[in-house]
Amino acid sequence: MSYELYEPNPYHAPAPPPPPPRRSASGWIALGIVAALAVPVLIVLGCGFGGILLAAKSGASPSPSASTTRETVQPAGGPYRFQLPAGYVPIDAPADARGTLEHATAAALAPGDTANILLAGSATLPVDTGTLAEDALRTEVDATVAALGHDARTGQATSVHGYSAYRYDFVYGSAHADSYFVFKGTTMVQVLCRWADQKDAVRRGCDDLLATLTIT
């Protein structure tokens, strides 16, 4: 059919159809993140979907450790892996800390020590974050951090082992945490580092973990 030959009756022209509703991709991101993050237990433990690493404060990616003999941690069916930081032992992710995290893993300085802990987990988002503008994704992550009761103004865009990431400072009374949200496509990996009295050791462990984090 040629539109060039079509001459509608001007007195009976049909009304144009209404435009389709607009769908907010960043809104989907927020829903996905909130579903994965809105877990009170994570707040208690000082772990959040975001930050770690002292080196990331400067915006730089961590440098991988030279060791090639460390144990590789990869949860069954999980979309990520990392090398166990030196001086850490793998432990079961505390049941009250997993929340809605998928494929949760944890490491501690000593068995049973959950006061100073590294916790990782993943979440599947309904939108490919690689298709979003950086400011749109940042806005959604900031909103999620604020909803968890933390200061989104501490957020910094950074890179973790080549992946887009955002880092935040979380404070829980006398406990603190560095929290990272790390993104690849529709996968978000959260690395949670919380310390009560072993700040240097936990941040060193975070450094090592992030330097070897791979999202598959």
UniProtKB/TrEMBL annotation:
It comes from Cryptosporangium japonicum. The chain crosses the membrane at residues 28-55. Residues 1-22 are annotated as: Disordered. Keywords: Membrane, Transmembrane, Transmembrane helix. This is Lipoprotein LpqN. Residues 11-22 have a biased composition (Pro residues).
